[in-house]
Amino acid sequence: MGQKDSKPSYNSADYGNSSNGYNSRYANTPSSYSPRYASSAGHNVQQPEAQARLQRKYSRIGDDYRSVSQVTEALAQAGLESSNLIVGIDFTKSNEWTGKISYNRRCLHDIGNTPNPYEQAISIIGRTLSAFDEDNLIPCFGFGDASTHDQEVFSFYPENQPCNGFEEALERYREIVPTLRLAGPTSFAPIIETAIGIADSTGGQYHVLLIIADGQVTRSVDTQSGQLSPQERGTIDAIVKASHFPLSIVLVGVGDGPWDMMHKFDDNIPARSFDNFQVIAIQITCNL
């Protein structure tokens, strides 16, 4: 397929906002790339007045959902029918065993004759949330594979080209999965930083980051009680930082979980401009 067949990986710092504005990778994009990702200097952490607007507008989005459709309803009730979607897919090694119960002991990323849990999740999200994305251009990223670990993300297409709708996202997912080697550890910080950079470049347009993952952020056995692992700390810091921007983060769980720790994780995140992190406590299984 030419250029689209390669899988670039980038350091998450390349996407985060900085004193110099949004990263130049988006400023030098091909003509087919959406203009809403053009570089925009000066859009850093919001000023107090803008912070207050964020809190008033987005605090109505709750954090107790059981389905993607409930998220859709909450966004509509908050007046966010014109949201822009960003998708992040978890390619950590735990996907090889977290389908023991829900996916007949198969890897959650297995590509076969029937849709795997990630394919089902992408399809379900596409049916319920695609109407919210005006231009239907969806930046899609992966994280946690052997080329990115917990430090970077990779774009589904070179030059950060977005997918044209969820059907193309699903097609591209199927193309790249066989080329990947699952790794880890799990951190949501790089994909959140990436989404912050995108939201920062668009002059206040509201974005929803959809993270599809098989489990919680890595917490090593040697992490003491009451302490945070580096991955937990990085993810918390990124979530708090993201609350300064018009960005909500929705974690969609696939496989066996566990998910209870992610709910506790959300509840214990320090003060944010608004509650910007939601966990959908459902299991997308091979029976759906």
UniProtKB/TrEMBL annotation:
Signal peptide feature range: none
Domain spans labelled VWFA: 82-285
Disordered, as annotated region: 1-54
Domain of life: Eukaryota
Polar residues composition-biased segments: 8-29
GO molecular function: ubiquitin-protein transferase activity
InterPro entries assigned: Copine_C, E3_ligase/Copine_domain, VWF_A, vWFA_dom_sf
Protein's recorded name: VWFA domain-containing protein
Organism of derivation: Triticum turgidum subsp. durum
